[in-house]
Amino acid sequence: MKKCEWCQDGGLLEKYHDTEWGIPCHSDRMLYEYLMLESLSAGLSWILMLRKRDIFRACFADFDYEKVALFTEDDVNRIMAYPGMIKSRRKIEAIIINASKFIRIQQEFGSFDNYLWHFSEGQTHIYQLHLDGELLTRNELSDVIAKDLKKRGFRFLGSILIYSYLQAVGVINGHELDCWMFEKIRGKII
User: Fold this and answer.
1) In terms of CB atoms within 10 Å, which end of the chain has fewer, N or C?
2) Rounded to an integer, what distance in angstroms lies between the CA atom of residue 12 and that of residue 33?
3) Residue 20's closest CA among 189, 184, 187, 190?
4) What is the largest CA-CA distance in the chain?
5) CB–CB of 115/109 below 8 Å?
């Protein structure tokens, strides 16, 4: 069975590809986790994020955004001291700030899921440029969402990270055309 080239490590990346990446996600808890993993990944590799995922879950209350929003300076210090944690105070503080912003979006839209998927009218998108073989790292949709999140006070989430996030949660079908997951997910051609 053909798969995306980037995932063929026979391990963690492949499992992530086969069971999570690109499958439309509508769980607010998972949408928060994926968004925060993208935030943590700024300047780092995705395989590192997957390897440290259990550490991140331990540090950030299993990505329970309601708990994370209440974290204090003591929690920041606890997380900074946690073995194996990425030692970036700014990223850790961003996760906490982003939790409260996430909750505000839920209050405004009923759920983060409603907020996120309204940008694509509830549909997975396939971009014609992708079909034509171009490798995209951002686009108009990721620009719009990143700008809106920044306006709402989110940190460490620019257009390139948001594009990656949209692929991860299935808003954009970024699977290679001959990958078995591309056909499974499909989507609306834009």
Assistant:
1) N
2) 17
3) 184
4) 50
5) yes
Amino acid code (one letter) for 188: K
Helix (H) or strand (E) holding 42: none
Q: What length does the chain have?
A: 190
For residues 70 and 132, the answer to whether their CB atoms sit within 8 Å is no
| Residues annotated catalytic, as ranges | 16, 38, 46
Q: Tell me the domain boundaries of the chain.
A: 5-189
Rounded to the nearest 5°, which phi and psi values hold at 136? -100, 145
What phi and psi, each to the nearest 5 degrees, are found at residue 188? -95, 125
pTM: 0.95
What integer pLDDT is reported at residue 155 of this predicted model?
96
Q: Does domain 5-189 have CATH number 1.20.1250.20?
A: no
Taking residue 67's Cβ as centre, other Cβ atoms within 10 Å add up to: 13
Q: What is the pLDDT of residue 129?
A: 84
